[in-house]
Amino acid sequence: MRSPDAIVIGAGIVGASSALSLTNAGLRVLVIDRGAVSSGTTGAGEGNILVSDKDPGPELTLALQSRDLWFEMQEDVGDSFELEAKGGVVVARNDDRPLIKLASEQSQHGVVTQKLDHDSLHQLEPYLHPDLHSGIFYPQDAQCQPMLAAAHVIRTVVSRGGAFISQAKVTRVIVENSRVAGVETSQGIFRAPIVVNATGTWAGEIATMAGSHLPIAPRKGFILVTEPTKKYVFHKVYDSDYVSNVASSDADLQTSTVVEGTRSGTILIGASRERIGFDGSMNYEILRRLAAQATSLFPILRDVQLLRAYRGFRPYAPDHLPVIGEDGKVGGLWHSAGHEGAGIGLAPGSAALITDAILGKKSFMDCSPFSPRRFARVAV
Amino acid sequence: MSEIISFTFNGRQVQCEPGQSIAAAVINTGTLSLRTTRFGEDPRSIFCGIGICFDCVVVVDGVANQRACLVTAQSGMKVESRS
Amino acid sequence: MIIVIGAGPAGLAAAEAAARNGSDVALIDSAPRIGGQYWRHRTEVSGYRSNRAEALFAKIKTSRSVTYISEASVWSIERDGSLIRVNYLQGGTESSLTAEKLIIATGAYDRSLPFPGWDQPGSMTPGAVQALYKGHGVLAGKRVVVAGTGPFLLPVATTLAEAGVEIVGLYEAHSPLRWTLSPVALIFNLSKFAELIYYWRLLAKHGIRPQFGRVVTSFAHGQATISHVDSDFRMKAKRAQTIEVDAVAVGWGFLPDLTLGGIAGCKQRVVSDGTTVFDVDRNQLSSQPNVWIAGEATGIGGADLSLLEGEIAGLAASGQEISSRLRIKRFAKELFAQALSRSYPIRDGWKSWSNEDTVICRCEEVTLANIKESVVELGAEDSRTAKLFTRAGMGLCQGRVCSRNVAEIVAGLTGCSVSDEERIASSNRPIAAPISLGLLGDGKK
Q1: CA C134 to CA B15: how far, in whole Å?
Q2: What's the pTM?
Q3: Chains in contact with chain B (at least 3 beta-carbon pairs closer than 8 A)
Q4: Which chains touch C (3 or more CB pairs under 8 A)?
Q5: Which of B15, B17, B31, B46 has the most C C-beta neighbours within 10 Å, making it the best mutation to test the interface with C?
Q6: ipTM higher than 0.90?
Q7: Which residue in C has a C-alpha nearest to residue A263's C-alpha?
Q8: CATH architecture, domain C112-252
Q9: Which CATH superfamily is domain C354-425 in?
Q10: Is it true that domain B5-80 has CATH number 3.10.20.440?
Q11: How many whole angstroms separate alpha carbon A34 and alpha carbon C82?
């Protein structure tokens, strides 16, 4: 492609959705990636599209919109990436008051919640431990196969006049008169007046190449995968009591073990949004903790064999909010990164925000809380 | 032979010598197929024979995905192709 | 104490050498009997120079310094300060052993290449046929074809023939003339001629005539198709032959078992034929302190080399000097190992044996067409992305059987070669043996 209107760096789900949204807005988009499609964090994701794990605030607003945009994107691209509104069940252990309080706050902001008593909880998830007595059902929580999604979205972009070049590692961001002018890569120089940085954990490096700064760091997360089993888990099931002192702060509620079945018959056990711990290399103690959590929710899983475990690197900013907007120093350089464990779910929403901002259109929400400029004060 | 091991495979009685694997015992009766696959329902038997390939997995006393080439047959075992 | 994982030739030699030099040894193995895949036996070891096995077995069994733990599957290895902890499953419970030093001798398993029908019952590896008979006294069938490449086909064919199986065909894909590429290795290993004569006599006794340049290219319902191939393994259009058989035993050399060394963090490298092996120094020490690796996991070389590497590892782990005599013997066997890979290379033509609907990943039933689609339609460019799109390599065997084949099929489609990084990454398996979540979570059955 000779002269694209915009270059998107990163062929994960965030970059792919941005490219689709810009393409649909009439721009000619070139997507580049240092590897293949889905070869970064998207390829290590569970495909969570969640509203249940978010506190009221800008991220929840984004998540709600983005969740609906996922279904629109499916209509646009075709039913090819296993998108499924399977719903989430958050289980309370002992004191269910913090959970009920969070749910009631969420429901005031548009989240559909449904309080579950012992019977309704066990109707939804018959294999749950019989002692578990209460929970909340979040029917909006959904799931997709993120690698397939990114691949099909990129394919759609290309079919609509865009282009994708893989194995193109950015070596320099070309900046002229404080405005971005293109990128130099291992596959040559590409020039465009708009560059979208959707490189997840590597977003900070791209910002630095442009002479700017973005404090995004990788954080390791673990996912356990079992052997294929009969269907024991019907929704995404979270444990709200992962940290023992559940009532101590709202942040604790967001550190929950997730157990869910997949179409291939395996069961995934992960942590939806761990904000504490979980750093370090392959740590068998963490695997043991996750297994203990999962089996205390579902005793039937005690006899199910763990087959593999893998780590992913989640990109996060110091305040745990995604970074979506134009760079503070370099005009025309737009960032959409730092989505931490929620990148799959927030991808199309972030893409809509970026596209609206680039076109100067009013968007569905005020995106200033996500602005990269918020780090200006702490920048070195 | 001092002792004969007797177990069932898909309800059928199978006898073997002590120390033989489930796969060896079943194959010795002339039956090669140990299970059918999850998606294509294709028959499968032992392939690597040493526990690497997991192609011979059967349900042993209700526990799924046991490698028939590794599990030693015991009297009274209930072995099934699928649960 | 020294923990030795694996009781095949390398592990036994390591345990014996370490015990002889005053070390306490814990020898862990997943099988019910010592000997590994090579010296697999029900009652006594048979075959070429089996007396070596009996001598080694006797030393291990009578040594007071060796604790032998059988039927134990190691599922993970952890560092605990300067100590190494080995977690293993045995009889439905989990146990751990902790020691200062670890010797990994996990061996190898048959390499398989896909062809139409290789997933049918009756199609198995030579190792499976051997294990079935030697380990359990059961024959895979009355009429069997042994095929593939490499010298291991000879003991398999002769063992089966001695047991009364009709070897309907013994097909070696390569020409024996390839050995002329390695004259030096042969001069350093004249004893190998005695081994060859041993097998030749047995083949002659049973009227088995090996045929070269032929491979099994399909198998279904008791019928095997034997095709002539060129030196690149491409089928020649002419002359395919169909024969009635009960089973086909097809093997393409061996793949080192890299799982446990990988968990221990030991550095790997890719050798010239594309096989990933562990990088060890002249004392068999890996990149990890106090972790030695011996035998096939450092490169396929056969039992003779494994015995020497095991002995060197056992001596080094016990703080002994390694004599130059041992080093020279190992060097000669290494020359032979190189000659093996030069004589029996796997050529790209195997990719043309499969049809669109041939299963490539047996566990997840991923076909060649699925892999092609992931590359052509979805943009997969390496085995990792192909795996994410198709699930090839994500099943129960964790890609042990298919990952190398998938990587090479994808490389063939994209026109790129498989990178060393990709080859090494595909052996990363943090859970070496399946463990139930109950055991993992609280240690209770």
Answers
A1: 19
A2: 0.93
A3: A, C
A4: A, B
A5: B46
A6: yes
A7: C391
A8: 3-Layer(bba) Sandwich (3.50)
A9: BFD-like [2Fe-2S]-binding domain (1.10.10.1100)
A10: yes
A11: 39
